[in-house]
Amino acid sequence: MARFYCTIPRLWRRLKHCINERILLIRITYMTLFYNSFTTWNTVLDTGMEPLFWFVDRFAKYLGPIFVVAVIILTSSVVLIVYIYLLPDIYTRSMAWVYFHLVFGHWLLVNIVFHYYMGVCTSPGHPPQSVPEIASICKKCIAPKPPRTHHCSVCRKCILKMDHHCPWLNNCVGHFNHRYFFLFMFYMWSGTIYVCITAYDLFKQEFFRNEELAYPAAVYPLHMAHKILGRPATHTTTEDTFLARILHEDVCPQYLEPVGMCWNNSTKMYEDYYGDIPNKWLHNCVIYEFLLCSGVIIALGALMMWHTRLISRGETSIEVHINGKERRRMNKLGLVFKNPHSFGALQNWKIFLGFKDARTFLWRVLLPSRHKPIGNGVTWKTSTYDLNNPQLLVL
What is the pTM of this model? Predict the structure, then answer.
């Protein structure tokens, strides 16, 4: 008598065994190719950022000149508006204030132009052929690197005391132009604050007209949000803008014509609302200048505060990450990390700006100066020992 066996359970077990073998093979292959006991999340992050690094390496050198031209155009436009519109407005108020603005404004302008030009044109510094102290070997240049020296993938050179590659300068920020970079930020930030204060009354007049302000004019985003969220969705008041009149009213108040015919007279209505052509230019230029400068105040102020913190601690943008890792490593060992290049906040600023007393501060910081930074960027005096005289220093 023939016997029949159900082979479905056996087939399922074989299929399951085959799938498990394939999964195990994939896992072994993956671990063989990618696993490393020294792998950390920093390594994973660096690997994931490789496409961005590739893009920066290939295209940052082409974006640099565009950024430089943009800085020149935007700065020139702000200066021209000050000359054409703001100074005449100040002249109608007081001649004494005109003299003050001419002196103070041109002092800021000269410092901005000088430090930007020097930051763009000054070489950050490169290691010499003979290095007295070798910190490591550059894998790209295949050459010895002094302390605080790092390789720039955009410039494709090693940079002394490298901070970062700045696209706005189209140059690396290093030992010999770091001071120019920071002072350019400081004077540009001060200049934008000065322009916003000077243009405040005109901006308030041109931007808000006769509207009742819920907040001060300087914080105009809050006022606009309050206006959008707090006002009813009707457009019957006389304080509505010109565009709101056309879009939301059935008739034009001044001409008593249907909306469709108002578009033909839009130019005339615009002139009636804003005045003649010079007043339209004044309206647009003042708003453009105030919005541009207020945006620069926020963005450049945040960047400047970051670099102020780094300089006070005797670090660069690269060293803050290196020292952070070293600090965490030593904390696990129960030790305290001390930055060897920090001599205290005041002394760090004196070294960075290159002044010793009030007289040198006046000539080297408040006025344009081409003096070189302290040291050669190759050997560094540290807070623990002196390379030329290896004796412990009193802290």
Answer: 0.72
